[in-house]
Design goal:
about 40% strand, three-stranded antiparallel sheet, about 160 residues, disordered N terminus, six-stranded antiparallel sheet
C-alpha cells in the first residue's frame, strides 16, 4: 500500500466529531465529545465556583461535563477539583451519587470515617449519608461526580 492508497479509517463511536452548533435542529445528533486538555480542562467547558461563597467549603472548582448542555440524560457528570488543603461541604442529601478520582489523592469522609482515595477508586455515597471530600495534600485532587439529573439540594452539616 503506497502513500496514495492511504485513507483515514472512519471515526469510531468514541470519536464522534463535536457538534459545531450546540443549538442543532431537532432530529440531528446531540452526541458530542469534550476534548480533554492539559491542566485537567475540557474544551468548551468553563470552570465555575463549587457553590455560592460560604465558610463550609474551600478551594474547589466545578466543571459540568454532562447535564447543562441540553442533554436528556437522567444523570449529570461533573468534574470537581479541590486545591491543596481545600475541602467540600460536609453535607447530606436524599440522592445517591458516585465519585471517581482521576487526579491526585484525597479523602472521602463518610459519616465519621476518613478513607484515603485515589485514581480509579469508586466511592458510592448512599442516600442520607453525611459525607465530605478533602484534599490534605500539596497537589490538586480531582474527581468525576455522577449524580441524578433530578435531585434534592444538599444540606450542610456542622
Amino acid at each position: 500500500m503506497g502513500p496514495a492508497d492511504h485513507t483515514e479509517p472512519p471515526l469510531s463511536a468514541c470519536e464522534l466529531p463535536a457538534p459545531t452548533d450546540a443549538s442543532a435542529p431537532p432530529g440531528t445528533s446531540g452526541s458530542k465529545v469534550l476534548r480533554f486538555r492539559d491542566g485537567f480542562q475540557w474544551e468548551g467547558v468553563v470552570p465555575r465556583a463549587y457553590k455560592d461563597p460560604a465558610a463550609h467549603w474551600r478551594g474547589i472548582a466545578r466543571h459540568v461535563l454532562v447535564g447543562e448542555g441540553g442533554e436528556s440524560a437522567p444523570f449529570h457528570v461533573r468534574y470537581f477539583e479541590i486545591e491543596p488543603r481545600g475541602h467540600s461541604t460536609r453535607e447530606v442529601h436524599e440522592h445517591e451519587h458516585v465519585v471517581i478520582p482521576i487526579r491526585g489523592r484525597g479523602v472521602a469522609r463518610v459519616g465519621d470515617r476518613d478513607v484515603p482515595i485515589g485514581f480509579g477508586d469508586v466511592v458510592y455515597i448512599a442516600p442520607n449519608d453525611v459525607h465530605q471530600f478533602l484534599n490534605r495534600s500539596e497537589e490538586p485532587f480531582g474527581f468525576l461526580c455522577i449524580v441524578p439529573a433530578s435531585r434534592d439540594r444538599p444540606r450542610p452539616i456542622g
